[in-house]
Specification:
The complex is a heterodimer. Chain A is an alpha/beta fold. Helices cover 36% and strands 29% of the residues of chain A. The chains are: A alpha/beta, B mainly alpha.
Chain lengths: 296, 281
């Protein structure tokens, strides 16, 4: 399995602040990989180290098998780091032309990428007048200009309207599925990450807290919420897997066991008026994990 | 890869009209304007030829060009060039665009490309100074009736013009390298420009003291310590009528000293930039 990004014991300290604390992480090539964490978790710092913008205080980071900051590896990736910033007097088209020249890209499809991110109409306007969402789109076009193998995105939909968010989400998934690009994205939008990502890593206080596929991580925290009567019979039938919350009973069971559990409840004389799955989302996972690290 | 960065920087400068104008075009245009204003004043105020005690010389176009190209040793002129040099680097800090470009090319290439772009701009500006001075001298000669000479001596005039160009250009490159180093260290254009101009101005004061104290040819220490002195020695070697105390004895050494200063400061700027953490540019 090829590795897109690897961090081995990476630490970074800015003065008294420890941004990364012996972080070790391996992100395979292929698919969409999410990196989640609260503000200050170290997501942007990790990206900056990998891109050679800052040097780690400890450990080693590698990108496509090469040391972090290796220009040959960097030319095979595209990146959008934090808030996109551009020279305001350049038009969108000129910005991409300059960046294509810097990259040594001989035949950049500037118009094509501007079209794909929805900036054709604004191509010849100076960036000075761009909204935050437009700058995000231009940053994405700049990152894709060299047809990268790996795309690193730091909050790619920040500042965008709902329609724009849907477009970018679809583009990310399209890049991974159709073009074979490995997408590594950091986001606070947990719902977006759950919809787009195949695997995720949770960072907190500069450390890796949990890593795994989205489906595996969310399944652990899924609960079956049952509106039942009488409640005491239901609790007796479910045993220690269930608890009462308000007017409902919450059962910690997996989906495969659900049909059997429901049949057992009916057989025990319990009336079931509603049954639905809750909590199988990254938000629940995120809160439980960051709560664990606070306590631990 | 350096060629890629150089091409990108040239495009950036072509689109940065403010920097292009104030950094490289303003000085030649002002030089032309002052020349024309001088001609107008001369025509308006001069007494008629033939008045006792007055002689008028024809305008020597080649000499005018050589002398115009040495105007880069004037501090007000150097200020505009340093604004250009500092701006080329400082803009990426100000607008936080290093994060966009440093993953695309090596830091050394990016900074050297900026210096090369400055070099191209400075060369063009110095050549414009020469051309405009010849235009100004031509117009002056015609307007005042003094006439002008166009007897071009390959041995004398071409060497003088070429030498003036090379000296001024090399001195500006050395100053630009210093300005770029200071921008990298401070991440800001203004302190860099003020410091660069200040350091060069201090040298001009020291030059005067050293020249007066010399009993023989300038020594290696004199050249190494003061790059502005090296440039001054070279200019004196090229232009006629220099004061006796500035008679140069070792202009190749002065040229080498200036070139080493330029290369050394540029190397230091690249070294500092390569080690810099670009968190908040």
């Amino acid at each position: 399995m090829s590795i897109a990004l690897e961090a081995v014991g990476v630490g970074k300290t800015f003065g008294a602040v420890k941004a990364l604390d012996a972080l070790s992480l391996r992100i395979p090539q292929g698919g969409v990989y999410g990196i989640l964490g609260p503000n200050g978790a170290g997501k942007s710092t990790l990206f900056r180290i990998v891109l050679g913008l800052v040097r780690p205080s400890a450990g080693e980071a590698r990108l496509l098998g090469a040391a972090a900051g290796d220009i040959k590896a960097l030319r095979r990736i595209g990146a959008v780091i934090e808030t996109p910033r551009f020279l305001p007097w350049l038009t969108a088209r000129d910005t991409l032309k300059v960046l294509a020249l810097e990259s040594g890209e001989k035949s950049p499809d500037i118009d094509g990428w501007l079209d794909r991110v929805g900036l054709t109409d604004a191509a010849d306007r100076t960036v000075h007048g761009f909204s935050v969402g437009m700058k995000q789109r231009l940053a994405l076009a700049a990152a894709l200009l060299t047809r990268p193998e790996v795309l690193i995105l730091d909050e790619p939909t920040s500042g965008m309207d709902p329609a724009g968010i849907l477009e970018i989400r679809a583009l990310i998934r399209d890049l991974a599925d159709r073009d074979g690009v490995t997408v590594i994205l950091a986001s606070h939008q947990l719902d977006e990450v759950q919809r787009v990502c195949d695997r995720v890593a949770f960072l907190d206080k500069g450390r890796l807290v949990r890593e795994g596929s989205v489906s595996d991580l969310t399944a652990v925290h899924e609960l079956l919420r049952l509106t039942v009567s009488p409640v005491d019979k239901a609790l007796a039938a479910l045993g220690d897997k269930a608890r009462v919350e308000g007017e409902a009973v919450l059962a910690a069971i997996d989906r495969a066991a659900a049909p059997g559990v429901i049949k057992a409840l009916v057989k025990a004389g319990v009336d079931i008026t509603e049954a639905r799955w809750i909590g199988g989302d990254l938000e629940t996972v995120f809160l439980s994990l960051t709560g664990e690290t606070d306590a631990g | 890869m350096l060629a890629d960065a150089f091409a990108a920087e040239r495009l950036r400068l072509a689109k940065a009209r403010g920097l292009l104008f104030w950094g490289f075009l303003f000085v030649p245009l002002m030089s032309l304007a002052f020349g024309l204003i001088g001609t107008v004043i001369t025509v308006a105020t001069r007494r008629a030829p033939g008045d006792p005690g007055l002689t008028f010389a024809a305008n020597d176009l080649a000499k005018a060009a050589s002398e115009a190209m040495t105007q880069t040793d004037l501090i007000p002129v150097q200020l505009f060039f340093m604004l250009a040099a500092a701006g080329l680097v400082a803009d990426d800090y100000r607008w936080e665009t290093w994060r966009l470009v440093t993953p695309r090319n090596t830091r050394a290439n990016l900074l050297v490309a900026k210096l090369m772009t400055f070099g191209v701009g400075a060369a063009g500006s110095i050549l414009l100074l020469a051309v405009f001075s010849m235009v100004s001298a031509l117009i002056d000669g015609l307007a005042t009736g003094d006439g002008f000479t166009s007897n071009f001596s390959f041995a004398t005039d071409l060497v003088r013009m070429g030498g003036s160009f090379a000296t001024s250009w090399l001195e500006l490159i050395a100053m630009a390298s210093l300005a770029m180093l200071l921008v990298v260290l401070t991440r800001n254009a203004i302190p860099a420009v003020i410091s660069a101009i200040g350091l060069w101005a201090v040298q001009l004061l020291a030059i005067d003291r050293i020249a007066k104290g010399l009993t023989g040819p300038p020594g290696v220490f004199d050249y190494a310590f003061l790059p502005a002195f090296s440039a001054d020695v070279l200019r004196t070697a090229l232009l006629a009528g220099a004061p006796p105390e500035s008679q140069p004895a070792a202009w190749p050494l002065a040229f080498l000293a200036l070139a080493l200063w330029a290369a050394g400061l540029a190397a230091l700027a690249v070294w500092a930039f390569q080690r810099q953490d670009l968190t908040r540019e």
